[in-house]
Each structure stands twice: as C-alpha cells, then as structure tokens.
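G., before I forget:
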Amino acid sequence: MVEERKGLVFDIQGYSVHDGPGCRSLVFLSGCPLSCDWCANPEGQELKQRVLYRVSKCKYHERNCRRCISACPYEAIAESGDAEQPVNIDRNICRDCKTYDCTKACIYEALNLSGKWMTVDELMAVIERDRKFWGDGGGVTFTGGEPLLQKDFLLEALKRCKASFIHTSIETSGFASTETFMEVINLLDFAFVDLKHMDPDKHMEHTGVRNELILSNIKTLAASDWPGLLVIRIPVIEGFNDSDENIRATAEFLKECDLEIVNILPFHRLGDSKYKQLGMKYKYSESEGTPEDVLLHIQEIFLKYDIACFIGSNTPF
Amino acid sequence: MPKKIADILKEKGIPINFQYGGTAPEELVDREVKKEPDPRPKKLLNLYFDTLSSATVEFPYWYTRKWKELEGDIPVIRRATAMKYAFSHLTPTIFPGEKLVMGKARYYRGSFPMPWESEGYFLAKEDELYQAALKKGSASADEVSKFGSGGGNVTKSFGSVVSIAGKFGIREEEVPALIRLSREWVGKSVDDLRSKYEQMMPDYDFKEKIMRSVICMFESGFTLPLGREVINYYYPLQYGFDGLIEMAKERKAEVAGNAGGDGVIGMDRLYFYEAVILVLEGIQTWILNYAKEARRLAAEETDPTQKAEYEEIAECLEWIAHKQPRTFREALQLIYTIHIAVLNEDAISGMSPGRVGQILWPWFEQDMEAGRTTEEEVIELLELHRVKMTCIDCFASAGVVGGVLSGNTFNNLCLGGLTRDGRPATNRLEFLILEAGIRCACPQPTLSVLYDEKLPEDFLLKAVECVKTGTGYPAWMNNRNAIEFLLWQYGREGMTLEEARAFSIGGCLETSPGAWHELTLNGKTYEIPGGAGQPTSVGVHFLANPKILECVLFNGRDHRTGEQVYPAHNRKLETYEELWEVYKQYYEMTVDVLCRANNIQHDIWRKNNMSIFHSLLKPDCLTKGHHIGNLGIRYNGTFNVESCGTVNLINSLAALKKLVYDEKKYTLDQIREAILANFGFKTAEEVGNYSLVTQEKKEGGEVWDDIHTDCLLAPKHGNADPYVDAILKEYEDWFCDMCTKYESLYAKPLYACQISVSTHGPQGAVTLATPDGRLAGTTYADASMSPYPGTDRNGPYAIFTSATCWDQTKSQNSQLNIKVHPSAIKGMEGARKLLEMTRAYMRAGGFHIQYNVVDSKVLRDAQEHPENYRELMVRVAGFTQYWVELGKHIQDEVIARTEYEAV
C-alpha cells in the first residue's frame, strides 16, 4: 500500500483578513530555505515538528512536576536550576526525536508540538468546512515557512482547491526554481511575493540566501500571461531595507517589470515569545514596530513612481 | 500579464493615492476615532453619569390609597382608577436643556417599587431598612467616591439615603412610608396570593427545593410580569389620546350589557373599556402636568433661549396629550411618553421600542419634505432619546435586577428587516439612528439589525461602522430564521408570512410577534410595524443546565444546600444513554413543576394586576374589548423555557462520554470524587475571582491533576469537532421539542429560548465543578453558543460550524458573542470583512452574533481603575452595559473570553 502524501502544517487560521482578498483561511506550511533574522514564525522554519516550551504553563515549581524529565528517552530534558526557566531542553539531542514523549507527558500544555502532518484530504476537509464562512471574494492562502518547500503537497492541495472552485493565494519568498515557482503560480489566483532587499549581498546577509533567483522569478511571472494579481510585499526592517536607496531600487525594479502594486508591512515582534519557547534567541526582541512616518515616507517614494503602495492591512484587497 | 492596478483600484473604487488612514472615510477607521455626542445630549448624558439610581414612593402611595378606597369594585376598574390617580399625582420635573421630557418618577434616574406585585422583600428588610434610616451619619467622601466608581448603583446607604434592593437609593424619610405601604399588600400582592395557591400543587415542595438550589433563577409572575416584548405605539400615533377615549366610549356604549356571543368573558368588555378611559385620562393629566411645569419654568426663566425652549416643550405636550402628533419631534416625544407610561404600569424589563425608524418615518419624511427640520436636528433628537432611554431604571429585587439583568433594561431598537410585501424596510431615518448611536454611545436603546440578504450594502456597512466604535451594538439577528420560527410557533394562532415580517426583537434577543398597521398622516398612508404579542419574559426561566447534570451525577442531591432536590434515581448510569435518559427525566420534571407554578403566578397577575395601558396599545385589545388576561392581544403563545449554561453541559457530557463510557479511563465514581474535591482547587469565593483562569490550587491538590487535565482536554464545543457537535445536536433536538410538551396558562405550547442574560454568573456560583474541568463556583460560558473561555482553539469558523450544527429556527433565539480586537477590523476593508463574517454566520443558519470590539488589556486596566472607565461599554450576554456596572463575575468572564486577533 502506498502511503498517502502528507504535508506538515503548523497552523490553520480562519477569518484571516490581511492576507489576500476577502475573509480567508490561512494554511501555514512548515519549512523554509531562508533564515530571515526577523522571522515571526520560527516554529515554521524547519520541515519538522518542534517542541515549544511555554514557561508560564509549566508547573515545575507549583506542583513539583518532573513528568517531562522522566519521559524523555534521550535525557534531553534536565532541571536547569534557573527559576525563570526551570527545565532545559537540549535542542541538539532533541533534533532527531521522532516520538516526542515529553509533549505527551506534559499534562499542563507547557510542552507542545508545533505542526501536524496532514493528508491532503484532511486539509481539504478543514478548507471545505471554512469556505461557507468566507463570504464573497474569500479563499485559501498558503503561507509558511515557505510553502513552495513542500511543493508536491502544495500542488496537490491547490489542484484540489481549483477543482472545488476555491480562490487560491500564496505568500511566498519566491525562492524556488523557476519551474516550481511557475508551476505553483499557475494554480493561483493571487500571489504575494516578498522582495526583502534589492542588493544580493545584503539579502544574503540577513536572509541566508541571495536574491537573484527571487528577482528573476518575479520578472518571469510579470512577463507571463498568468491572469492573477501579483502583489510585492516588503517587510520593513529598520536599518536593513528601509533606506531611500533600497526603496528607490525596488521601485525601479518594479517599474522595469511593469508592476504597480506594493504592500509594505510594518515590523512587529509578535513572534518573540515563540523564540523563547523554542529556546532560540531573537535578534529583534527589543525592536519596536516600524513608526508610521517611516511607512508614510516609503509610501511617498513609491507613489512618485506611480506605484500604489499600501501599508500593512490597509489594502483594497 | 497580471491584472493592472488601475483595474483593481477601479473595481474597488479606490484612488491610486490611497493614504494610510487618510482618504478612507474617517468613521471607518478603528475605535480610537470616536465621535462625540452633540453638546446638548452630551450635557444631559454627563448629568446621567453623575446621577444615582433613585427610588420614591410617590406612585405607590397614590396607587395604594385609591386601591384601598375602591375595595369591593371589579379588579380591572380598581386598578385603572388607582393608576389614573397615581399618574395624575406624579410630580413633574424638567431639566434645563431637555427637549424630550418626562420620566418614570421625579428623579433624573427615578423609579419606584410596586408592593402590589411583591411586598415581602421590603418587610423582610424592614429591620434593616429602619436601622439604616435611623443611623444618621454624614456622607463621607470615601463612601461617595465608592458610588462613583460603581456607576449609578446605590449599593450602600450613605448620609440620608438608604440603599434598597441593592441598587436604588431612597430618602430615609420615605422608608417608613414604604414599609407602611408594603404592609397594606400583605396577603394581597401577586406574590402572596401565588404562594398560597402554588402550595396547592402536590409537588410544591419539589418546586421550592428547585428554587432554593438555584436550578431555576427567576419567577416572572410577581417580579417582572411583562417584558422582552415589543411595544406598539400605533394607536396613539394614529388617533391621539382623545381619539382613543372617544372610541372607547363608543364601544362601551355598544357592549354594555351585551355578552356578544361569549358567555364566559363577553360581559367583561364593558369594564375593560371603562378602564381604558380611566387610564388614558390619567395619562393625559400626567402629560399636562408636565406642560404646566414647563409653563411655570418658562414664566420664571430669564434666559430667552431657555424660556423659548420651555415654551416649545409646553406646546408639544399640550398637543400630544390630546391629538395625533404633527411633527417628528412631537411623534418622538409621544412614543417616549407612551414608553415610560407602560413601564410605570408594571415592573418590566425589556419593553422594546421596536422598529422606530420605520414607525417614525411618516413624520420624518413629511418634515424633511416641508423643510421643517434638518437631519442634524433629527440626529440631536435621537441622541436625546438615547439619553432618556438610558435613564430608565427597572425596579425589582436585587436578585432580579443584579443577578438576572445586570441592571440593564433591554430597550432594543431594531433596524432593517422586510416590509409586509418583502422589500428591504431600511430607510434614511435608520441611518440617522445609527449615527446617533455612534455619536451618543450609551446603553439604551440598544440596537439590533434584522439582517436579511435583501438589505442594501451601504446600510449594512453603516451598521458595521457603528459596531467598530466599540459600543457593542448593533447586534445582528437573522431575519429569515426569525420568520421561520414565528410561523412555526404562531402559525397555529393564524400568523401569515406577511405578518411574520412585522416582527421585532423584544428585550435582548427575543423574537417577538408583530403586526402591520396603516397609519395616515396628512392624507398620506403608510404601513408601520408594531408589537402584537404577549411578553416573552414569562414561563420557565433560566434553568441551570449544568446544575441539573450535577444532580443526576449525585442521585438527585444538591451538595451545596445538602438537600435532596430530585427523587433519588438510584441508577448506576452504566451507559451514556442511561445518563442522558435520567438527565432528560430530571429536566422534564423541572420544567413541568415550574411551568405549573408560573401559570398560577400569571393567573393571579391577570386577575388582579392585569395590564390596561400596555394592553390597549396592542392589537386587538381595543377591537375585542379584552385586556391581555382575556386574550385580547393577537398572539398569546409567548411563554417559553429559558436555559443557561448549555455549553458547559455539552462539554461535560462530551467529557463523560469520552472518559467514562468510550475510553473507560475513569469510573463515574472517580469523576464524582474529583468534582467534590473541586479537582484540587480552592473555591472561587476563597479566591475572590470567578473566572477559571485565576483559580488557585489547594495544598496537596496535585493528586487531581491527571483527571483534571483529562477533563480539560476532552473535546469541547466550538471546535467543529463532530464528537461534541453530535451531542449538542442531540440536546437541541430534544430540548426544542420537549418545551412544546408544556402548556402555558393561555393553553398554548411553550418553546425554547436560549439566552443566559447574566444568570451564568450566579448559577455558575452555585454549581460544583463540572466534568468539563470547569471549577466550582466559576461562571458558566455566556450566551448559548459562545465557547467556554479558552477552549476554542480553531478560530471563528470552527465556532460557526459547531454553533450551526442544529436547526436554530426551532428556538426563539440562540446567542453567540465574539470579542474582536480592533486590528482585525481596521479600515474600510476591515469593515467589509466583518460584514462578510456576519453574513457567513447568518447564511449558515446562525440566529444572532454580536461583537465586542475591545482589547483585553484595556479591560484588565478597567477592572483595576474603574474610575477611568466610567464610559467603557462591553457586551455581556446579548446586551451592552457599562463596564463599571457589571458584577465582578461577569467582568472576569469578559476578560477571559477568547480574543480574535488576526495579525
């Protein structure tokens, strides 16, 4: 018997109103080839389930609980001696775990497993359940992580959506082979493609990959006969991509591609707590949200190029 | 080529230079952008904020005096004469700046007790009240500031003010009078008589045990015998009071001495018409006394503007005391006057004005056409109407006013719906009503949209704009659901589809029957809707669903009181089906006995304390010559069964089914032990907080951790989990049908009503821990479809799926409150998406949805610093109330309720 294909989904969010037209369901697929410093979804970076540790729920002190420590067969969990973070998880050992006994042992929901392996059928059941609540113009948006990383699962899900007349959208870094990128795009009605920086080296420095492939994918898509709507998204990161120079370069690139819509996203650090839960350091844990005047300034530059620049969730789509 | 921006923007009607928070209509940004009331209503609203709930014995004094004099006369005449006398003697007060005038009593927030309904409470308190009255003390600043932070509630006596019923202040010199008046009603009040006759039921003891256990929370017959219904303003609006008196005189002459083919009550018509004349004359005098007061003030006033305003008030009142109103202002004054007259006739909560925008349309249209008024002037009047309606206090005992109602008076004003011939009924005036609701944010009248697919988009978006201001209103009601329900319940009384379309919401969300009337103004004919049914606040009210399950688990015994409430079933409950069977048996016994008791209460009420003014307003009392008690009103099958705590019941059943019966992980005895041990936690009272999240563990409580965790992790409502949804559906199918097996005193079947109002606090307080992991004493999930706080993990679409797994048209209502963070509905697109969400739930068959647009951080701060949040309003179980006036139970629960933030 052939095992059914499964995808690792780390969240499904209903009534999502900021990631595509109308009210949508957002499907978060795990795994990403980039490693952006400011990433808000660290639990979705690897194509692997991760153990999240919420200290606020831990009853190590209050109830003298040691369940996880005794449950771990690899001795990866130990008392830390630190009252603030009573147990230590050795993530190097933890990496190869397949059983996640600790999360089963924790009855207080302090240790949780991120993500769930789902078949396309299971995913479609949720989407079909939600669709009657989207209303006019809603649909599904695949995001992540980088949804293109689980290409086969994504393609199958998208084909099923199209067969069911569901509006499809993606939020992608655009970092995939042009062939994959275009194959997926052709099953979509709407696409957000991130353009984090115009300079390949700077891009490399903060995202872990160069941007040539992304730029060429955007070009290819813009020149194609794909009938959908493409929106370029820029997460505005202070000191990285918010310089006038970079914004102008971006605007010029968009003009070159004959693209006229951009959506700039103010930085937020809502992912901070998830870094803590994963035992990771977040470079941006002290950073403030992007000030409004910076956003307005960027918008002004784009408008000078006749590019419609929408800020955050204040969009017509 | 991908689509061009220009096409996209054109499609959306948005210019390319779309600015962040700039060119979007300002009112569609988030709640920080708040509009202010216009200066006049603002001043009067501020006066409201500074005013305490005040009671007086003026009305009961004159009423009781006349009633005594007429000993031996026919009750309806005695009552009408007493009422006439009382209305005629009320002291009129007019406050500077008012355009709409009159009030229930002479205070700005005045009301009064009605010892003829129930006097025992005041006598039981006699000692306490006297002591408080005698204990002279000057008002310390400390005490006064306490009241300030608690809103207008007078919860403690101070200075020469005595607190009664936990909410109202009364002058100490009136206390002896109140007690004296109360003594007059000993053995004669509805309460005393019903008690006498209820005891003739063989299972009276059982009923009393149910009341003591708080399995049932409210008895309508002698506390609030009317309400959660829709008033009808038509007859005075069409004929004026003079016209109605004329008609009654003519009819009186026709029926005097004639049975008219009805040998039982045909002769009663004479007395009813006579009573109508008496009451109307009393109300005319009452209005004219205010006119006189306005004249007196005008004569004394030196400021020419204020003097002219007093004169305008006098002219308006002198006209509407007799005739059909001529202008929008007169019509608004008249409906408001009618409203408080009805509220003075009896203790009522939830007398809804109905579809005011459609009722007042004729005057608005003609005034605008003639250039007699402007939209701004109309908005100001509507704002003043809001302030007046907010000042209404309902006097009843502490348990009823605080526990059941949270002080809310539920004057629900409805918008939208359909006309008799099925067209959208919205009009321009309804836009202005929404605008007044946005500018002058205060709890009354609360607004509801009768949502129909046919309603125009601009109107719906205007309603969303109002939601976004964070006032909590309008609520959204499903017009089609309501029509189906009405035809199902009232078809047997002859309701047609066209007439079903005249319905409106009575109280917070009770679908109430209505009727259409032809109104003629200056030769032009209009069709206006109005209430045509009896109250729906009557019947078997607020059954604590989880508490009944507790009794099933403990063989009929209430552990809190130690009483054997139900006959022991002595069953082992070996299967889930057996457990469910016993539950249904206990439940049906409960409904049966309470229904009979309630019938006796209302029968006493209709014989001795029937409504006359309220009756004559509704079709077809004036035509038939019969008051409510003689079935004069068109629709009489309004009595219902109200449940509370449904979601905790469903979650508990799911936990038992899974852990005890399917997986057999625990025995029922283990669950019982865990419940009695409160899963190792302290009681909510010890902790001082009634929300699950803040409960504290007892020393050594860890032994219950595993079982508690399993109970908490068992499937929960609101997650689109078929396991739980099937249990909910089975419950609803049974409950909605079961109610119809019982008959009201008017020989009509009861039906299901599923709103908790505020009873999920007190009823939760008397309930032990439940198998779903809820701890003893903590609040139940509010509403009937809202998930228990923190247990919905899959977002609103999953909640919608669970909530619509059963046929909601078989119930008078259901209730779903969702707290929305402002960021999720920001901007114009946010508004559209909120509308999409609403529409989606309605299309799926949901009856009601309501949004609380607020940040929980704000609420926590409001709990700590109530003084800074006097104006903060929140939704609680289907209505809007000021945060500071809510009980702590409810505050805790609102904070804990899931917050949807789409970032």
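Residues 44-222 of chain B form one domain. Residues 16-33, 136-150, 875-880, 898-903 of chain B have pLDDT under 50 and may be disordered.

More on Monday.
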